[in-house]
Amino acid sequence: MTLKATTSLPDARAFLGDAPVMAKRRVAEAGSASETKQLRVAIVHYWLVSMRGGEKVVEELCRMFPQADIFTLVCNRDRISDFLKTRNIRTSFLQKIPGAQRHYTKMLPLMPFALEQFDLQDYDLVLSSESGPAKGIITRADALHVCYCHSPMRYIWDQFHVYRHGLPWVGRALMSITAPMLRAWDVTTSSRVDLFVANSDYVASRIRRFYDRESIVIHPPVATDDFAVGKGKGEFYLYAGQLTTYKRPDIAVRACTEAGRKLVVIGEGEQLAYLKSIAGPTVEFLGHQPFNVLRDNLSRCRALLFPGTEDFGILPVEAMASGRPVLAFDAGGARETVSSPQVGFRFAEQTTEALLETMAAFEEVEDDIDPHAIRAHSLKFSSAVFRDRLSGLIEQQLSTHGDRPADVFRRRPG
Predict the structure, then answer these.
(1) Does the pLDDT value for residue 359 go beyond 50?
(2) What is the rounded CA–CA span in Å between residue 175 and residue 164?
(3) Helix, strand, or coil (residue 334)
(4) 60, 114, 119: which is closest to 87 by C-alpha?
(5) Cβ(378)–Cβ(224) below 8 Å
(6) d(C-alpha 34, C-alpha 222), whole Å
(7) What is the largest CA-CA distance in the chain?
(8) 9 has pLDDT over 70
(9) Is there a contact between 212 and 152 (Cβ–Cβ < 8 Å)?
(10) 344-347 and 89-91 as β-strands: parallel, antiparallel, unpaired?
(11) Which residues form the Glycosyl transferase family domain (predicted)?
(12) How far apart are CA 365 and CA 10, in angstroms?
């Protein structure tokens, strides 16, 4: 399977007749990288309480638009990067609620109200980073709103029952009551977006399914320069990430236990005790580890085992940037990153037996795999490629913002 080229869509919507003259002039003149610095830019992110893939995208957006202000529902400055701490970050009224930085997910029913309180009337370009509610902000009528969608909200759509079953009875009852209203709000606010950008073909299909909108695919940035090809043959299989049910770490643990293969597990989560109970002597649990330990293990592993389904999945690309192959479940973003036998193998069923068969096939050709070819493949997903593609798209949309009718980014035909 090969990577799909980015598709193109028609140009963005027209100005309304009463749009502010100076704002129209700023947007009309923003046709190059230097001229976009004149724009008033807002970056809207759902919450800033950790540094994961979504927050790394926000960092890149800030590098593209250093003049931008950040709007977020809740922020924990102790858990974000030093770079983001230098930005002008504005939070919602949820920030003032005691315990909000730890229990923000429980405030989901309040988030649409908090989001719509942000006043973005001074901004010409709004970039929303969507996984939780972010795209539902209210922009000025003539502003260009581009949504970079990591995923439609999983907890009210395809993962609704998974999240609901993990709650106490009071939480389940509240979620059952509020979820229909949140879905209606989520679909309605999709019309506030001029252009959707999806982080993978998998997410693009979910945007189409839930919002009936088309999108352009630009893969998220991976800091490939932070990794390097290791020396010698890999020593062990590696699983890294949260030890949660939907990521299926149990498949990796069971497979390596049954095959007698050494497995290193990096991560923590509610499944840790259970995984230890089913693990054999060849499985080693390291718990949470700093980045330098993860990087070292990625460079020394035989292959990364990736049995879950992710919207994109940055970790497999980081493994490939270290010159190591990936054995991944054939779903989600892995179909786009683990795209040939030269960089890894995909298994069709999310079972221990399927992974065991794939490990056997991999070990037959393991000595013939070229680590440097794997790393070269990973560079297609670098931060530089992300910035180049997204900035080019935004500049194109800004330069033609007033040339098309208002419905060109609305619902697809039929």
Answers:
(1) yes
(2) 7
(3) helix
(4) 60
(5) yes
(6) 25
(7) 71
(8) no
(9) no
(10) unpaired
(11) 231-366
(12) 46
Two structure tokens written together for 356:
């065991």
User: Containing H/E element for 389?
Assistant: helix 383-399
Task: State residue 36's pLDDT score.
Answer: 61
Mean pLDDT of 209-235: 93
Cα–Cα distance measured from residue 164 to residue 68, given in angstroms and rounded to the nearest whole number: 36
CA 64 to chain centre: 18
Burial of 278 (0-12, 13-18, 19+ CB in 10 A): exposed
Closest to 135 measured CA to CA, from 188, 95, 90, 178: 188
Alpha-carbon gap, residue 284 to 282, rounded angstroms: 7
The tens digit of pLDDT for each residue in 110-153 reads 999 999 999 999 999 999 999 889 999 999 999 999 999 999 98
Strand 237-240 relative to strand 41-45, pairing: unpaired
Contact between residue 385 and residue 378 where contact means Cβ atoms under 8 Å apart: no
H helices present in 215-328, as ranges: 249-259, 272-278, 291-300, 314-321
Q: Hey, what's the torsion of the CAs at 280, 282, 283, 285, to 10 degrees?
A: 120
3-class DSSP state of 364 = helix
- In the block, tokens 């419905």 appear at 407
The CA-atom distances, in angstroms, between 167 and each of 161, 173, 175 are 10, 9, 9
Q: What is the DSSP string of 185-208?
A: HHHHHGGG-SEEEESSHHHHHHHH
- Alpha-carbon distance 217 to 315, whole Å? 19
Q: For strands 41-45 and 69-72, give the pairing.
A: parallel
Quote the CA–CA distance of 4 and 285 in Å, as a whole number.
37
